[in-house]
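Late entry, [4Cu:2S] cluster complex.
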Amino acid sequence: MPLSRRELLTGAAAGAGGLVIGGVTGTVIGGGEDDGGAGAATGLGGQADAVAKARDLKPEDVTRALKTFVPPGEHKDEFFLFASGGHSGQILVIGVPSMRLLKVIGVFSPEPWQGHGYGADSSDLVIKQGTDPKNKPVSAARGPLTWGDTHHPALSETKGEYDGRWIYINDRANGRIAMVDLRDFKTKQIVDVPNLDSSHGGVFCTPNSEYVHISTMSPTLVDPTKAANALENFKDNFRGYSSFMAIDQKTGRMDLAKSFQIELPPYTQDLADSGKLASDGWVFINSYNSEMAAGGNLDGGKPIEVGASANDFDFMHIINWKKAETVAQSKSKVINGMRVIPLDVAVSEGILYLAPEPKSPHGVDVAPNGQYISVGGKLDPHGTIYSIDKITTAIKNSDFEKKDQYGIPVLKLDSVVAGRVEVGLGPLHTQYDAEGHGYISLFLDSAVAKFTLGEPYFKGDQAFKLVDKLPVHYNIGHLVAMEGDTVKPAGKYLVALNKWSIDRFPVVGTLKPQNFQLVDLTGEKMEILTDMPIGIGEPHYTQGIRADRIKAWEVYPVGTNPLTMEKDPNATAKGGEKISRTADGVEVWGTVTRSQFKPDQIRVKKGDKVTLHLTNIETTPDATHGFSIPRYNVNISLDPGEAVTTEFVADAQGTFAYYCTEFCSALHLEMQGWLVVS
Ligand code: CUK
Ligand code: CUA
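Prediction complete; structure with ligand written out below:
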């Protein structure tokens, strides 16, 4: 029987000469006898066939399994997804194509396993500094924030490619941005961005990670004392801000002193993307609700969603950030500790332009060569593809249709659009492969549409054409192709991030998981390989990076403070353990190793300030210990080599049996000690 294309593909995936399973009939074909490959033993094919029958798997299921299966103990995941965890305030790390969850990184929310926010100074400080009562008076009243709604991760880049150094992610709810170091996959910094009360999709790194960008979503009330009548005069009282957070090239941390903002009209700024190559130096931000509707539906006013959808066009903001960087040095004013280029200066300096966008735009995504910018208007069945050449020419020729009410020049739509593709209902976000295809998510259609870009990829009537459409399950939001927003997409796989899963998984109560669907891009038609339920929050965006770009540490050099990634001055070596009395309490230098805490008795007086410096002196990968004190809400993870300090007031009398929370050794249960508060 001749092999179908799929069978051949499957054979290739299983290794040349290896076992080929699949095909329309479900027939199992054994590998060649001479190949010597691991899976080629005679008779194994028959067994696999029996398993497929017993489990009621169709031939195409077997092919899918082969394409995603990772043999026990092997590292066959070619890519990592870094997915926002949504409400969980975390980042999820997932292997592709296996779709196995590898890690959950605590970012804005305390995370008990990693001891993120449970007493370790390194993480407590990060969380605490992530709420700034100075520029956000409300924070002083409400206290530090302990959650975030993570939406848009942004991997650091060098020359427009991911470099595996850092990842940034925003908090949709509170206008904040965090930095995670990919050496140890830990959160090092949360910045409460001045002048941003909220933030959404404006997060990306510039092509050499000079800046990470974050903009407002719901515009910010400029003067909080004017809250009473603010909504009635929305256009004067509110503003948007596009923020360029300068990145320290050594640490990856954001440096407020070198950062700047551009004041924007109070349209709701939404997704954004950085230009690259042809469009290097530019930034594109969608907006919706350029109507500036503020609701009032109980009092007979137009509901917000109606008011916000009245106009046929909203505005793409086109920002020349390279120019803005220079202007920020001389013509900005400092507001809440941030340099801000005022709106009128941005206009007069030629930093800010607008282009009309079709109804309720959401995604804006720059193609790998930087030439094309794809916009999905939720209420328009087309993908609208802009061209940077056309944009810059129109700017040069002052080819403006009008000015908006803030005096910003609005480019003529026909002068800047390169093509339109009828893709289907509810287009949102676009990703790319290296061959000049765009993949756009269709929320209302529950589908992914594949289309062609224009020159140099496709010419004439081959350009801007719908070429494939794949139903997904269901209500897709974002989608991600591997390295699909870099200058060199890897293609191969796409993941659809579906908002609804309805009938895809067993019922686990009334709140259903989201559904990540892995899609094979290697064939002529897109094909779903597997579903992955996400039961922890609603991920929005995800980036997919080649696994070999990540060079994570397995252990810390002994005595490393994860916050500084340098030797902690209080790191303690074996034999250096001690307890000292201080003016107001007790200071302890301890070591942690299999299977003891030293010291294993700490005696203090009620009311003492207790400062514990603990060092895990292990150098073996995975030799992690935990340190938990009952009733004191202290729960710390000490990874191999990690040094941590925790401080608390011993305000409750009694004996408290601290213990190791990781089953680290045969004598793990014996790994305990006593805090005696008398
Ligand atoms: S948003 Cu969720 S589907 Cu927050 Cu990037 Cu478009
Ligand atoms: Cu250390 Cu259990």
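The two ends are 83 Å apart (CA to CA). Will revisit in the morning.
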